[in-house]
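Format notes (please read before filing issues)

Several people have asked whether sequences and structure tokens are stored in separate files. They are not. Every record keeps both together, in the order shown below: the sequence lines, then the token lines. Line labels are part of the format and must not be stripped during preprocessing.
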Amino acid sequence: MPIKRRQLLQASLAATAPLSLSRLQAQEVNWPSAPVKVIVPFTAGGASDVLTRRLAERMQARLGQSWTVENRTGAGGNIGMEAVKNAAPDGHTICSATIGTLSINQFLFSKMPYDPVADYAYVSTIWENCNVFVVPVSNPARSVQEFLEWARRKPQGVSFGSAGVGTTPHLAGEMFRHRMGLTAVHIPFRGAAQSMPALMAGETDFAIDNIASYMPLIKTGKVKVLAITATTRWPTLTEVPTMAEAGIKDFIITSWGAFVMPRGTPAAIVNKASQTIAQIAQDPAVKEQFLAAGALAVHSSPRETELFAERERVKWKEVIRIAGVQMQ
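Then the structure lines:
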């Protein structure tokens, strides 16, 4: 074999060896070897909880052992995150973390019981969705631009609601207000069960809220959707423009979830979990199931997940600074 060809082959083998070894380790590691607990830091019935339970069922079917989901709520998700931080790093306790617990809370809360960078081994993203720009049916606007024209004619400005201070819908509304130079007041509610009826009744003027929460109201014509905050049109709302198409550039907001394990969990376990999620996310039945719940089934490598969460922190840190929000 000519020297040049041999050198190219050796270089190619060297480049693929770490990846092949990683896959081999992921396949051979004896995990799980005991029941697995997946902690959701939020209440049962929400998007994060529903999607986590569906994924846990698939993980159990592929990997064996018993997979149970436990809701450990409080402090914007911080209590559940702390519980996973303090768990044994053996792969048998997982946190279904979110954009809030990994990329927002550290800028909202004056005291944090965990460090989202130092305390966890990142596994994979698991789901993502977007927000919808919605207004009451009674609002005359048929587009975001028409809404802005209408809003700027209001002497006292307009209002927007959310499920609470510091939530992504609150911060999205603040981002919109700031970018558009709009006079708008935030009205926080105790949860979506209160904020959604307020919008339907015209007690608030707009919301930029989770698509999964608002999809039933959109489909039944109880609210009017003017745009979505994704990069491309949503599969179940193909007639609705993106914010960019509606004339609002660089207004991309995605909510997302990711699996993390306690820092110190062996890389072979993390890799096996990540690769299993990748296989599940590509299953057409899973994609359809997630989409029905208002989300996309996604996956990423451990490193990709870590870098993605870091990029999100940069964006939301600035939004929180603009909003001037601070939690105790």
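For reference, the curators noted about this record: Strands lie at 36-40, 67-71, 93-98, 120-136, 158-162, 184-188, 207-210, 223-228, 254-262, 296-297. Residues 3-28 form the longest helix (26 residues).
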